Amino acid sequence: MKKIILMIVGAMLLIGCSSMHISQLDAHTKRLPTNNKATILLSKIIDLDKYNTLLLVPEGPFIKGQMSKIEYFKELVTPNELKMKMIARGLGKTVPSTEDTYIINEAAKFYKSFLWFRLHKHINLDGYYGQFILTNPKTFEDYFIADIKLPSTLKGTGDRKVWYPLFNAFIDYIEQNSKSWQEKIKNKDDKNNTEPRVLELIKKKNKNNTSKNTVKNLFNTLK
Would you give the DSSP letter of residue 155? Predict the structure, then answer.
């Protein structure tokens, strides 16, 4: 329980380093606007599409809202929402709380398979760091950890400094490990590359038709 309390406190401190503005991904890069980059501490190759049905995210609207903009995981739930879903399925006695790592493990066994996306804050000799961690709650195996140094002053804090680099690192991980994501991006790129060419041909055709009609009308006038 002490470990859970420390995790929650760390997450709250990390959230404090942000204006928590939910942004759309760039239409071309599929990333959030920032010049900062997070450090990747762990990136395990997995078939991520096997786990994209449900993602457990921290309480609060920001992480859930920004994660929804990525449009990869089919369902996003917070611990309290997961608890309500389990109670609705008659699992309330089996899983009375979702505020414990053991209970989250039980939820992954009895409810449905999901991945656990969590926040962590730790201190090194040179200051505080914030982390995004993706975990399999059935095995407690971490699949992904991104790390970024937190600014030492309030003036240096903000979404572009802290959150967006972490989210971009997570999007990189999705892109590297999800075939469905890669296919979706490819289809969008193909569509974007095709549409300008189609429009160009239509305009060219219309221009040619206009020119022919103009010449035809001119000859009709001269008759």
Answer: G
